[in-house]
Amino acid sequence: MTPSQYKKFKNLKRENLRDHMDDLELIFTMLGEKVTTEISQKEKPDTFVKNKIVAKRGGGVAGKARRATEKEIDRSIITKNNYLKQPENLPREIVAKRI
Length: 99
What we know:
This protein is mostly helical. It contains 4 helices and no strands.
């Protein structure tokens, strides 16, 4: 799922997607990013197309790990639940009064 698709899936408009991920969602996102970085540092792609291929490979590693994890725990890692404790668009004092 692309970030835009993921934001739509979580029904987010302008909010930060990462702020609304749970631990496992963040872990697999970070895994894809880190693997992509490692591949990129090793291979040093010099064009946009080559970088895009590296990113697909890194994301593929995280995708395989996610699917294996989902199979083991018998549930999806991807969830529509949002995990931000306080809304981003409200000042802290307003949020504090609501609690």
